[in-house]
Amino acid sequence: MKVLIADKIHEKGIEFLKKNNIEADVKTGLSPEELNSIIGNYHGLIVRSKTQANKELLDNAENLKIIGRAGTGVDNIDIPYATEKGIFVANTPFGNTISAAEHTMAMLLALSRHIPMADNSLKNRQWEKKKFTGNELYGKTIGVIGLGKIGLNVAKRCTAFDMDVIAYDPYVSREITDKFNIRLVELEYLIKNSDFITVHIPLNDKTKDLISEKEFDMMKPNARIINVARGGIINEDALYNALKQGKIAGAAIDVFTSEPAVDNKLIELDNIVVTPHLGASTEEAQEKVALMIAETITAVLNNMSFNNVLNLPIAEIEIPEKIRSYLELAEKIGVLHCQLIKGNINEIEIQTTGELNEFSKIITLYSLLGLFKNTSDYNVNLVNVQNIAKEKGLKIIQSQSQAMVNFKNSITIRIKNTDKEQEIKGTVFGAKYLRIIKINEFRLDFYPEKILLLIKYKDGPGVIGQVGTILGKEEINIDEFRSGRSKNKETALAAVNVNSELTNKVLEKIKNIKEVTSVKQIVF
Predict the structure, then answer these.
(1) 163-172: per-residue pLDDT in tens?
(2) What is the DSSP annotation of 267-329?
(3) Collapsing DSSP states into helix, strand and coil, what is residue 276?
């Protein structure tokens, strides 16, 4: 077996491959044309962020079985096309955990004590003690957004500094947070009450610009914000204005929307600490990711295991064709739960009926995949999703029931916390028509696709017409409108499939209808 190492990795990874009888060729800095001309000779490819594993390269990789990314981000790999070509793609999501957590702490201390500014001043032959009076961390409140591996490690270290640690993460159990003396709060509370805020979440459609002008307006004037996660979670224009206008006291930023960020206007400001994406840049982290990707490459090439594989194909699992639509349904129910849940969850129950009972394990994996894929600070896949749930301290229950009279096969997912339960049930009509048939007490019938509005209202005439009028004026087409009533027939829940996302302004208009009690926009 031959592996091409196209970007520089730690020597320990190369040694591991050679010890396991894999021929490892280190050829870094090759042009795309040079790579294309030799890739056909290799069974494995290891890259970092520089080498582009694009369609052209993959078309020339006739013997390639796996691409390994020595790091977390896989933006430089065409995963859908690799999957189509039958090539595994893997990464190393946990190798930089400690390094990123420690870099966050370094940024926190540098920001609170003005260390970079004081260093620069003294090196310019100035002695300005009063100018760089700082603040203690002791007794201050730090808000941690996202308690994945990195966020939790940051929280634990802040506790050691005797800081009051609060956190926002609906997908972690109180058993975990109580263990480390972390107080779970809602996002708005965290924004308003933190002296320091640090983000440790993935960048996706839900988290892009999570911290923007509205959030900066809510912060304390002495608040400071740190981002060692992903550029784009904090809106850079809003951050620039908040720092320039003195809305907040400072910021420490390691990641940017466009890198290298040598021309970013943020670096012009004197109340910000900046570093060039150094979160994972330690000797130890580089050694860990090199070893991890070498171990993964070796295991996959020898058909031993598929840990950290991001595109484990469903075709590799013996699932009948008629069952595969239910896997998609399970994932969609998970996505719906993710966007509806309020508060922190302790327990997830996945119940199957009929023919699905035989496949409850893989259905559970897809359910968890839908629930966590947009909430974790690393890539989530079928291989690691159960471990993610376990790390968050969540209890997973798989239950089976006999087929119902009306629906031979169905999936019900219940999410529970200490005082409430959220239930969503679905089935498939025919061979491929996914339907949600129940949300809590409301029996419905709608398809979980594209953009969905869930509107809860006091049942009565005219509400549907008012919603339709608002959407019509905004030139938003209704694909389907279904509603279900509560048992006492006083409340109804409407599921409205529309052809485009609604702005906050349009959502507010619907919320202002007298009978409407809540509106939630769901993006599948």
Answers:
(1) 999 999 988 8
(2) GG-SSEEE-SS-TT-SHHHHHHHHHHHHHHHHHHHTTS--TTBS---GGGS---HHHHHHHHH
(3) coil
For 274, list phi and psi in degrees, rounded to 5. -125, 145
pLDDT at 318: 57
Instruction: Note whether 224 and 198 are within 8 A (CB).
Output: no
- On the CB side of 107, CA atoms within 13 Å amount to 32
Let me know if 114 is a catalytic residue.
no
Is 43 a residue of the active site?
no
In the residue annotation, 186 being an active-site residue is answered as: no
Contacts of 6 (CB under 8 A, 6+ apart): 27, 28, 30, 35, 45, 46, 47, 50, 51
The pLDDT tens digits for 218-272 are: 999 999 999 999 999 999 999 999 999 999 999 999 999 998 999 999 999 999 9
Q: What is the bridge-based pairing of β-strands 224-227 and 196-199?
A: parallel
Amino acid identity of residue 147, one-letter, is L
DSSP state of 273: E
Cα–Cα distance measured from residue 393 to residue 346, given in angstroms and rounded to the nearest whole number: 7
Which domains are seen in the chain, by residue range?
Answer: 2-95+283-311 (3.40.50.720), 97-274 (3.40.50.720), 320-523 (3.30.1330.90)
| CB neighbours of residue 406 within 10 Å | 8
Among the listed residues 188, 259, 316, 449, the single catalytic one is: 259
Cis check for the bond before 260: say yes or no (omega within 30 of 0). yes
pLDDT at 4: 97
User: CA 493, 495, 496 angle in degrees (round to 5)?
Assistant: 135
Examine the pLDDT at 140 and tell me if it is beyond 80.
Answer: yes
DSSP string, 35-94: HHHHGGG-SEEEE-SSS-B-HHHHHT-TT--EEEESSS--TTB-HHHHHHTT-EEE--TT
pLDDT tens across 342-366, in order? 878 889 999 999 889 989 988 999 9
User: Annotated catalytic residue: which of 113, 183, 277, 482?
Assistant: 277
Residue from 103, 230, 324, 435 carrying the catalytic annotation: 230
Name the token pair of 218: 């809510």
Say what the pLDDT of residue 316 is.
47
Count of Cβ atoms closer than 10 Å to residue 167 Cβ: 25
